[in-house]
Amino acid sequence: MFPEKQPAIQQMGINRIRLYADHQLLYNKETGSLDVNLGLWKTMENVKLLKSKGLEIQMCYLAVPYWPFPEGEARVNPKTYIQLAKDIYFLAKENKKNGDPVSVIEVLNEVNAWYAKTLAEYMDGYAIAAMMSICYDGHKGKYPGVGIKASGTSALMSIPGLAEAEPYIFYQMADWCKKNRGYNVDGTIDFPFDIYSFHLYSSLEGQRQGIPGGTPPEIGMFSYMKKINEVRKMLNKNLRVHIGEWGWDIHPESMLNAPAFGNYSAHQTCAMWSVRALLGMAENEINASSYYRIAQDYNYDDNNATIFSTMALLRVHNQNGIKQPNGSYTAFDIRRTLTGDYLKQLSEFYNKGYGFDGRVSTSPNVLRFRKGTSELYAIWESEKMTVTNRPQFTERTGTYMLNRSGKIRRFVDDSSGVMSSEKFSGGRVIYGSKPILIVIE
Fold this sequence. Notes:
- By secondary structure, the chain is α/β, with parallel strands linked by helices.
- The protein has two domains: about 5-355, Glycosidases (TIM Barrel), CATH 3.20.20; about 360-440, Immunoglobulin-like, CATH 2.60.40.
- Helix content is about 25%, strand content about 25%.
- The chain contains ten helices and 24 strands.
- The strands form eight sheets. Strands 15-16-17-24-21-22 form a six-stranded antiparallel beta sheet, covered by helices on one side.
- Helix 4 (about 80-95) packs across helix 5 (about 125-140), helix 5 runs parallel beside helix 6 (about 170-180) and helix 9 (about 265-285) runs parallel beside helix 10.
- The mean pLDDT is about 95.
């Protein structure tokens, strides 16, 4: 969170950030209580600064010392999580006192970890619902003075970003809530949270000892987004849906890599897949998402195969900056990765009111967006995939007829953050893996 990073974040055109707030970074050993401005981190001060720059903040509270929680029947008893609910109340109260700079408070992270070392570290939907119930409103007021609603904050509350996208956890939570919380006046299930959040890394499940390697969003993301959206509308249409983590690595040996293929480098593949993922999120009514992760502060030459190590929108190209006479380090060389630059280019439209209007074609993919009387068409085709030891991809190209005149906007690789523009009089459009945007005024 050093100051030099913040202009680079703003210039990328993103409008929200998901921050981790570890218990040990907020816990004051001298007082035995939480402190939102403890030590070097000064969490609340930094959050207020980011908020003043126009960024929406989601704070994920995690790494609590009382994890894992007791097993057995205690897992579905809201009282089991009363200390966590007290922590959430404190954080929400401090947020309220400081002008509500945090827009979303997320309770823990990936508690349904399929990769957990022991069963004690895994929570199903029933346990998560019980935990959220006391953290939300003290289990409908049974435990007063705990949870986010008792604090008076305007912040919304999110479930832990789930470690997988299959909707069975959603159904489990719905089952627990129907029995223990009932229904709202509009007939919807009374869920004790505002946001359903899940993590969605597009792959052939290589991280679960399957075939390693990333896949295009149309293969590894779109169907999950569609399913969760359908379940949300069926169970409670008022809930928001966030994709709490997503992205691809650059290193070719990562289990989640975006590979080089054809004339595309790994950086280009990651960048165009990321744009396509965001277009798909708009189509499937995802309310917000957080690319994992903002900055890659080390190893900027991509020489690390460890998962998530080469997955970033920004990079610090001089590890320690330049040492100043007073001993501090400043003048950090922070640049957007190509993925960060493509997001910057897309933000010209996403931040200026264009909203998803409908799918025009499945092959090629043609999505229509509208802003007032203006239309925008996004056109691309997903790759042909063959699978050996890793997925292999071949670009599919063709022509699409659009009898409208306007401007063709193309993603560029020159780090400018601005798409190219050319006149379009209507007719055939040559498409491929990289989306083309056609703006009809």
